[in-house]
Amino acid sequence: MHVPLFAVHLSDGALATAWLASGFGGLAVMLVFAMWKVREEEIPRIGVFTAAFFVASSVHIKLGVLPTSVHLILNGLVGVILGRRAPLAIAIGLGLQYLLLQHGGYSTLGINACIVGIPALIAGALYPVLRRLRVPAFVRGVLLGGGAVAGAVVLNFLVLLLGGKDDWERLAQLVLLAHIPVVIVEGAMLGVLVSYLEKVKPEMLGSRREPPKPNTPPNEDTSW
Length: 224
Description:
With 224 residues, the protein is mostly helical. It has 8 helices and 3 strands. The chain has helices spanning 17-35, 43-56, 75-82, 86-101, 109-132, 137-163, 169-178, 180-200, and strands spanning 5-6, 61-62, 68-70.
């Protein structure tokens, strides 16, 4: 098994051709959905979070006892902030990682984008639901940040298990186990960030800033 497993970024040669084709098909559907009626004012935000995703996913921590590496994914953050635009940031970030850092692969770009992007879209869709249910901001972030990473790792596990050219079962299990700390860290990070943004810039999360309550002066005695 000579193909390296870089976290949840599958390399060229790891998967059967049918899975590669289905990955590009899924990516095409996500991109059409993401690019539909993009407004000009959304472009800077997409660019900022594309850069954040690219940088976070480019710093790898090698695990000495396991034949893999881990890194932050931030798909929960990208999904919560960008919503249905998240696949744009993820696809561009993954493409740049391959072109500039040889991280991942060109033939697996589609399936990698699906692995990371589908949980991001789910996190973005669930955020307003949890807000309407009055789930506390920190808890929302923890659930969606950790859940999006866990979803990506589980999808990566299933793709390796079902679509691998070789027997990847043992390594897929190790990658799943190695990312438990990443799930915890990203959940806590997004929890803190959501709590902060809800207070200072709720419009980034699709929330409305509460209007200030009018100052009500104390009742004045107008009797003569």
